[in-house]
Structures are given as structure tokens and as C-alpha cells.
Queue: 2 jobs
Job 1
Amino acid sequence: MDEFPPPLPPPPPPPPMTLDGAENDTIFAKMLVLSKREVTARRLRRTRQLRRCYRGHYWALMEEIKSKYKEYYWTYGKSPFKETSGVNHAVVLGDENNNNANGGNERNNNAALGVGGDDVVRCAFGGCKIKAMALTRYCHAHILSDPKQKLYRGCRTVAKNLPTGPSYCNKPVLRSVVPATCTTHYQLGEKCLLRAVKRAGYNVPINRKPNVKLHVVVNEFVSQIKNKRKVALKAAVSKVEAQ
């Protein structure tokens, strides 16, 4: 039998980093007192070297994140490859009809983590055929259906005012986003804020984000609250007169 080849030796460790201007520092190593200019020059030299080191690490990390994101988007995003055969090999978690007698459980365990195999994990929401996100059974549009997820919450913007109460947008939004609004309603809120600021007599360019002072926003909110109270009071008075 053929023997396995010996394992490759580990790569040698990188050479230690040398400080810039170390030759000049050895001259002042035995001195007890240094002038202010010498201390400032040494600190500036080392700060610049540390900045270059951090910058190199940052861009290396960005390149790694870019490659990881490309791999993630290719696997769980919009892949250009489509199934040409009539047999659908997609796996929907919770559907026992797709499980084979021999390897169904193992494939579902791998699909629960979003890894392993050539099967495409589809969203478990009824009627949805979009690929599921990694480490979950649902796509981004139906991620709120997963009771175990902790990263997303629904958009709290009122979409309609129904007789039974307000109906919220409830699109998935990351919990770290403040305010908890989707992209569409966030842009709509910015436009409303621009119109309110213009009504107050301030000209804000449309091509940049509004940067108004707090007292302007407070005055506008107070005026809107007063207008709402006046409308409600007028409606109540007219209702009493009608009775």
C-alpha cells in the first residue's frame, strides 16, 4: 500500500518588526536626560510606523472580508446557475417529503446550519422559494418568522390606520438600527423633515443630509402637536353640537 506523504512543515514565523530609527535610539540609550525635541521626534517616528502597521492590517482585513462576502453572496445570494433538470433538489426544513430514507436526517442537519452538500436550502415560509439565509431556515423577507432569531425586528412605522388599530410596516430591520425603520420609510422621514424645515423658513440643500438645529425641530414638532389638538377639539365640538 502507498504510504501517505509526510506532512508539510509549518511555515516559518514572520520576522520581528524593527523600529524605525533604532540605530539613532542606541546612541541615546545610555543617556539619563533627553531634550524635548529628541523625545518628540522619537515619539513621532514610532507613531507614524504604528499608523502604517495599523493601515496595513486594516486593508488586509478589508480584502479578507471582501472575499468572504463574495463567497457568502455566491452561496446564499443570487447565483447565476439555475437547475435545468426537472427534479428539484432543494431542501425545505420541516418538510418530511424531501427526506430520503438513508440520508435525509444527515442532510437536514447540515442544512440547518446552512453548510454541506450541493442542496440549496429554501425558505421554510409557505409559498416562498427564495434561498434561506445562513444558519437559519428563512430568507431575509421572512426572517421574523424564526422564533429563535435575535438580530432583526419589525419596522415600527405606521403603514395604515385601521379601525382596529395602527398597522405597522413590519419589514425586517436590524436591531442596531436607530430608529427602527426600513430604508423606504427612513428616506420618507428625511423628506418630511426637509419639508418641515423649509416651512420653518430654512433652506437646506436636497443633495445632502439635513443638519438642522435642535430648537428648530422642537418648534416644528410643537406646532404640529398644536395643530393636531386644534383639529381634534374642533371635531369634538362639532360632534357635541350635532347631538
Job 2
Amino acid sequence: MFATLLGHAHYKFEYGVHDPHTHDIKSQHEERDGHHVIGGYTLKEADGTTRVVKYRSGPHSGFEAIVERIGHAQHPAHYGHGHEHSHGHGGVGGTSYVGVTHWGNQGHGGHEY
């Protein structure tokens, strides 16, 4: 009954961050059409590998995800020894993006958000 009151939901979005200063590298995308959702995300792990997750969800299949790890984990031999640390704010800045490509009907009464 609740889903009937909301109408047919439809959206698509994506975002990403690529910051070489903090090494924060990740992205996500998702698309919904009614009760069906597909999407995925990537995340650069601290060990140098990349986690890739692809997922989908539907009323008959439930939530399904495939998780993959790409690359070989690398760890420094000694943490905190023999490294010079700079606390300046110079250098190359990071980049990010956000994109919302479509929002569908989100309820009755002509209200769309």
C-alpha cells in the first residue's frame, strides 16, 4: 500500500572523488526504476587495492551484490619511521564530481523533489 501511494519512483545519480593529497579515490552510481535498483561503487583501499561492488535489488530477487578486489595489497615495512612529513597546503588539489541526471515522480499532488 505504501509503494502505491508514492507512485513510480525513477532516478539516476553518480558521484566521485579523486583527491591525490589524501588519496581518497571513490565513485558510486545508482539507478532506480520502480522497485528495481542497479548500481555499484569503487573504492581505493589503504593497501593499494581497489574494491569494486556491483549490486541490484528487486521485489523477486531481493538484494544481490558482487564484490571484487583488484590489485595486490601493499603495506610499508615500518609505519612512521624514516619519513619526512610536510604539513603544508601546497601542491595539486583534488577533484570531485556529482551528477544527478533524473528524478521521477516522488508522490501524489504534483510534488516532485
